[in-house]
Amino acid sequence: MTTRNRSTSLFDFYGRPPILKALPLSLQHILAMMMGTVTVPIIVVGAVNASLDEKMALIQIALIASGISTLLQLYCIGRMGARLPAIFGVGFAYVPTLTAIGAQYGISGILGAQVAGGLAMMLVAVFIRHIRGLFTPVVAGTVVLVIGLSLYDIAINYMAGGVASSSRGSLLNWGIAIITLLVVLGVSHFARGFLQLASIICGIAVGYVLSVFCGLVDFSPIAAAPWFTAPSPMQFELEFHTAAIISMVIICVINSVQTIGDLSATTVGAMNRELSDRELSGGLLGNGVCTLLGSFFGALPTASYSQNVGIVAMTKVISRFVLALAAGFMLVAGFIPKFGALITTIPFPVLGGATIIVFGMITMTGIKLITKEEMSSRNVTIVSLALALSMGIYAVPDAIAQFPEMLKLVVGGSPIVVAAFVAIVLNLILPKKTLADEEQERLQIEMKMNGESQASR
């Protein structure tokens, strides 16, 4: 028997600690990943006006996809998977693009475009060594910053009660949303241990109970849902539209930057070493395969979960058995439709109050990435111009009203595409000057001006 098989350490990737020791640590990951996994399909369904059955199906398969994609990263199949302590699931970063495509082409358009997006991720995995230089911290940070900013209108609409709600903008809706938000803030900053990690869940629980007393919760979907159902392939048709495919490919490629960052943070923060090329390409390839195959079952695209990376880096618990228990819970929950039905009964104000702080954190993550590099004139130009053009067009959609329909969706449907394009192009063509280089240029200009001034006397 090898040392790998004998290990029971929490701090060994191959360690298999006793179940009673592993369960509480797995609970941390479950609480951290649950909100993102179920909220993304709810937001997308709201954008496409899908039926209740479709909403439940998307939540169910999102849970299953989260479990499977995480297990693949932990245990690997061939070259697929990073073999690192990382949690994967449906990601918030895709939401602006998914809602834009969904509003135009519906769920079928999203899933059809996702096939191309998954293939694009796999190509990135193959050529990552050659294209890694395109995604500098300034480029990646700008895109993440725009992702966060573009999510705010979703959260505000939810806090108001939802776009189509007859009570939209009422004091009751805003009261519930604000109370939910205050609970999340209070627990995240004043609680300790597991409770602090569950701040969003706590906020939703309080907001949900309050909504029940206010008569805003309809329990009929829970009663109607079966106890067990296995998802079947091709629940949704796949439709392929050029504009949707272009948008999806771009966001899937850009999201690979987040995966690179999260996997690097895992190895550096928890394992005290750099990320290997094998781990990087395997992680990207595994994510691409899950995204591709998920489209045939109705699972939205997957991504690494930064919040779980933070837990691993903080605790140094890297046992894949601990993370596998969390993945197993998500997998089992996905086969229980009553669980998904319960999630669908959460009122929009509760979701809005809980998620607006998450979207704010995404924005701050982008700012942190940007400031990893010095703020030279070159980098400031990249960030400012990408931000101005992307958010400007997003705020004034009529500005491109005369564009062809395909180009209108690609450019105006989501600010992420414009931000990514502008940031990458500027990063390639602008001269690479550091702050020291710029200071030296200013000194030379000043010396030249002083010399000319003296010569003229």
Give your account of this protein's structure.
By secondary structure, this protein is mainly alpha-helical. The chain has one domain. It contains 20 helices and two strands. It has helices at 3-6, 19-48, 52-75, 95-131, 137-150, 152-159, 171-190, 194-197, 199-213, 220-224, 242-271, 277-294, 306-315, 320-333, 337-344, 348-370, 377-395, 405-412, 415-429, 435-455; strands spanning 88-90, 302-304. A two-stranded antiparallel sheet has the order 1-2. Helix 9 (199-213) packs antiparallel against helix 16 (348-370). The termini are far apart. The mean pLDDT is 85. This is Uracil permease. Keywords: Cell membrane, Membrane, Transmembrane, Transmembrane helix, Transport. It is found in: Cell membrane. Its main location: membrane. The chain crosses the membrane at residues 30-50, 57-78, 84-103, 110-128, 134-159, 171-191, 197-219, 240-260, 321-340, 346-367, 379-397, 409-430.
Q: Which descriptors apply to this entry?
A:
457 residues, mainly alpha, two-stranded antiparallel ribbon, 20 helices, 72% helix, 1% strand
Mean pLDDT: 85
Widest sheet: strand ordering: 1-2
**H and E order:** HHHEHHHHHHHHHEHHHHHHHH
Largest sheet report: 2 strands, antiparallel
Helix content range: over 70%
- Count of separate DSSP helical elements: 20
Rg estimate, integer Å:
23 Å
Assign an overall shape: globular
The tally of strands reads 2
Flag low-confidence runs: none
N/C terminus separation? 89 Å
Estimated share of beta-strand residues: under 5%
Task: Compute the number of structural domains.
Answer: 1
Q: Kindly name the structural category.
A: mainly alpha
